[in-house]
């Protein structure tokens, strides 16, 4: 089992010291799904939502959240992301939106939290913008899909 790194020798929470870590290319991908009534998705796809293009707003919110992860998650490093991508795709089931995020940088620490934060905030933004017409929406399956780079190498969900 991996040792938790956010604890110091006294067992107190601390920010991990990455001073001696090598700068490497790092990338992480995460996903989330938001389930909704078919009529809500149709309204979004048809561009008939009274608040405008909710998918574009959620995309921008996800990007902004990735850039501000260190302000949201205690002990995260402030990172100079070189790329953040947030894709929102209407589900084939006619009642969901699938969110896929990717964050990249050249740095001393990974971008998993940034990718997860982007996916979460994009989903929350969709919820916020659509809650007046559909309070029963559910955010589901927020998870890391893949991480590349750094000392721990390449990891893919479902492949230990």
Automatic annotation (TrEMBL):
<feature type="binding site">
    <location>
        <begin position="75"/>
        <end position="77"/>
    </location>
    <ligand>
        <name>substrate</name>
    </ligand>
</feature>
<comment type="subunit">
    <text>Homohexamer; trimer of dimers.</text>
</comment>
<dbReference type="InterPro" id="IPR002820">
    <property type="entry name" value="Mopterin_CF_biosynth-C_dom"/>
</dbReference>
<keyword id="KW-0501">Molybdenum cofactor biosynthesis</keyword>
<feature type="active site">
    <location>
        <position position="128"/>
    </location>
</feature>
<dbReference type="Pfam" id="PF01967">
    <property type="entry name" value="MoaC"/>
</dbReference>
<dbReference type="InterPro" id="IPR023045">
    <property type="entry name" value="MoaC"/>
</dbReference>
<dbReference type="InterPro" id="IPR036522">
    <property type="entry name" value="MoaC_sf"/>
</dbReference>
<comment type="pathway">
    <text>Cofactor biosynthesis; molybdopterin biosynthesis.</text>
</comment>
<protein>
    <recommendedName>
        <fullName>Cyclic pyranopterin monophosphate synthase</fullName>
        <ecNumber>4.6.1.17</ecNumber>
    </recommendedName>
</protein>
<dbReference type="GO" id="GO:0061799">
    <property type="term" value="F:cyclic pyranopterin monophosphate synthase activity"/>
</dbReference>
<keyword id="KW-0456">Lyase</keyword>
<feature type="domain" description="Molybdopterin cofactor biosynthesis C (MoaC)">
    <location>
        <begin position="15"/>
        <end position="150"/>
    </location>
</feature>
<feature type="binding site">
    <location>
        <begin position="113"/>
        <end position="114"/>
    </location>
    <ligand>
        <name>substrate</name>
    </ligand>
</feature>
<dbReference type="GO" id="GO:0006777">
    <property type="term" value="P:Mo-molybdopterin cofactor biosynthetic process"/>
</dbReference>
<comment type="similarity">
    <text>Belongs to the MoaC family.</text>
</comment>
<dbReference type="InterPro" id="IPR050105">
    <property type="entry name" value="MoCo_biosynth_MoaA/MoaC"/>
</dbReference>
<dbReference type="InterPro" id="IPR047594">
    <property type="entry name" value="MoaC_bact/euk"/>
</dbReference>
<comment type="function">
    <text>Catalyzes the conversion of (8S)-3',8-cyclo-7,8-dihydroguanosine 5'-triphosphate to cyclic pyranopterin monophosphate (cPMP).</text>
</comment>
């Amino acid at each position: 089992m991996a040792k938790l790194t956010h604890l110091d020798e006294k067992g107190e929470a601390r920010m991990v010291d990455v001073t001696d870590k090598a700068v490497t290319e790092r990338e992480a991908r995460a996903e989330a799904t938001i389930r909704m009534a078919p009529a809500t998705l149709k309204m979004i796809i048809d561009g008939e939502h009274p608040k405008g293009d909710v998918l574009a707003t959620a995309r921008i919110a996800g990007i902004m959240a990735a850039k501000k992860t260190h302000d949201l998650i205690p002990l995260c490093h402030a990172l100079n992301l070189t790329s953040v991508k947030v894709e929102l795709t209407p589900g084939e089931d006619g009642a969901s939106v699938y969110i896929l995020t990717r964050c990249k940088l050249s740095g001393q620490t990974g971008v998993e939290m940034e990718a997860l934060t982007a996916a979460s905030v994009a989903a929350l933004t969709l919820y916020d913008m659509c809650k007046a017409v559909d309070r029963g929406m559910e955010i589901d399956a927020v998870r890391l899909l893949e991480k590349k780079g750094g000392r721990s190498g390449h990891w893919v969900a479902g492949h230990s």
